[in-house]
Amino acid sequence: MYPSVAISLCTLAAYCQSHRTCPRFSIQSQCKTLCYLHDIPYRPYLKMQFSAAYDIFLEILHHISQCLRQALKRDTINWRMLNTCPACFYKLDDEPALDFEWLVSIDGNNSLKRWDSSIYGTTARSDSRTARSDYWIHADTVDKFENEVKSRQTDLRNDDDWEDEPTDPDHPGAFTCVNQWRNAGPDSHKKMFAIFQESGIFIASCRHRFVLLACDMIRSGELVKYPIAIIDKLLTVYGKNGGCAYNIGCAFSKTLANSTLGPRAHDLGFRMMVGAFHGHAHNQRCQLDWHPMYISGTGHTEGKGCEHIFSASNELAHSTRHANRFHRHQAIEEHFAFWDADKYAALMSGNYFVETAELETIKAELRLSDNDFPGFFDQECIYLDVNSSYAKLQHAEGLVAHCETLLSVDERWLIGGDEYKCFKEEATLGKYHTALDELECLVVMRLFELSKLSLSGTGYKLRQQISKALQRRSDAIRNVINCYNIQAASLIPLRQMIAWKDIAEYSFLGEFDLLCDSRTDIQDKDWARPAHCEATTKYFKLCRAREEIIRLNIEIRQLRTAIHDETIDTSAVIDELLVANPLLAAELKRQWRSRAAINAVHTYQLDQIERLFGFSGISGIGTRLANPAFSRPVNTNGASSAQAENPDSSASEFHDIEALDREEHKVVTKDMADFLYSIND
Question: Where is this region: Disordered (predicted)?
Fold first, then answer.
């Protein structure tokens, strides 16, 4: 009845936007700022009061958003997923078919952990509030897939060893990389999970880095149930011909095929791949099968959208670590909503043209043609398959030697004998491989330290420690290079020598696989020559770039059509609300001003692209593909609902109205874009 503290809506709105743009800016920081401005000492209870008021403020915004979604007919199931990224999912009925109708990436992150309050010896305060958005897949839905991996009766540990699926006999070298570059270790070796109620999140994003789905990882690492639950939802919403990048997609594809979701994924033409960054950490044979650069139809999709999202969401960690479940979800939802809005504003960034001059120059120097590069690719695949078979032979020979020991076979080899020479050759080769593995390990550590050194948020002391570690690492690498060269010189035939300057060029770890040659000398093979390898890589990049142009032509028209349809629909709803609910109409007009300004910039940039010399797409707007998930009927050629439903309108009148509407829309958006650019200037 007699309040002593009041927090204005403007203050709450200002903090809401500040926290969205700077997740590190916490409620405590905001309260201390206000106390300083009001010349009063800070007290911890002020933070609690501000937090309660902020919860109510966000609840008000949520109810207003619900009313607006209902008025705009955007409250149907899966509407957000089908419309969050118009470039990806605003499908038109006359667009050409693509190898992949939709491309996503999935990954887990453990930064957004939440402590279990029981570790403090306290009981968590009851809070019945739940997550408001449809980003989340409920834990009960995820748990339906927890038994997808068959447990081994002889193994009593609670391990998440779903990566260790048996090797495919048709592709013997496909999954060996997972044992070397493990992404998720056994739970029994991760005791820290016991102190966290949620140990992180697992998300899916489209190729333009919009957040599509998320689920909590509860007291565990990246268990198989999380990606399967995410993929199940993606297949339900987006349907056939989908592609998905995952750090260990090579091994997970085997797990997916053996799961209950496997037949459905196969029937819908679903394809797993490995993201570009992690793909280069897998062995060369794995890269040839799973890296996006070698998969037709991927374009310039890097498959690392989740990493970009995590680089921003990591800033939330210090404010959500000790929050309750509702406040943690609320903070993550607010962050994701702003992230998606920010990605929409930056949707038109990128390059449209393909550079071919460099590859043409290389082809002329090496006297190669485009037909040679696929041949090099096939020859490399055959060689690596054979090499993997030889590794299996070595393992079998080792098993035989072990059996001979158990059977007390005491006959010794004579020095100079055939068996002795063979073993000496194998031992020398083993030392060579050991030196090579150690060198590869040090190079990997150096690459990670270099990336950490330039990472945003790395403090001064940590940078100093990393710099010293890099110096020590450089000395260690030089020593190992000398050891490697000694072993390489002892082999017959001689293996390739390595100098310090070569290490900087070994940025892709798959190149080490070509040094692990066993019996066949590949130095004279065309596909193994460094110049030919570089040219082959550029060729496949050029192939993907040409595919990217085809996809961009489709996405450009989809975005223009989405902007056109959104403008017509929103304007019609505003007119309706001005009569039925003027206050809600005023709020919709306020929100639409910001969206219209962004759409104006997009339209201006789309116009510039369509005027480019060499533009190969279709100009203008299209008609959205009918989908039962949409509640509002699709308007023919962007006409209003009243025009589409009027049977008395003639064809000529209809096209005249459409042309006038389109020209008016272009004039308005271009004037607004020119005005915005003048402000920036």
Answer: 150-169, 632-652
Q: Is the pTM of this model over 0.70?
A: yes
Instruction: Give pairs for 630-634: CB < 8 Å, separation 24+.
Output: 630/76, 630/79, 630/82, 631/73, 631/74, 631/75, 631/76, 631/79, 632/73, 632/569
| pLDDT 10s digits, 283-319 | 777 888 888 888 999 988 888 889 999 999 999 988 8
Amino acid at 310: F
Other C-beta atoms lying within 10 Å of the C-beta of residue 618 = 17
Length of the chain measured in residues:
681
Q: Which residue in 680, 386, 647 sits closest to 518, CA to CA?
A: 386
At 335-374, the pLDDT tens digits run 999 999 999 998 876 667 666 777 788 888 888 888 888 8
378 versus 252: the higher-pLDDT residue is 252
Helices (DSSP H) in 321-459: which residue ranges? 325-345, 357-366, 372-406, 418-453
- Give 661-671 pLDDT, tens digit per residue: 444 444 444 45
Distances (CA, A) of 15 to 58, 224, 322, 338: 11, 38, 20, 14
Write the CB contacts of 531 (distance below 8 Å, at least 6 apart in sequence): 362, 366
311-328 residues labelled b (16+ CB within 10 A) or e (exposed): ebbebbbebbeebbbebb
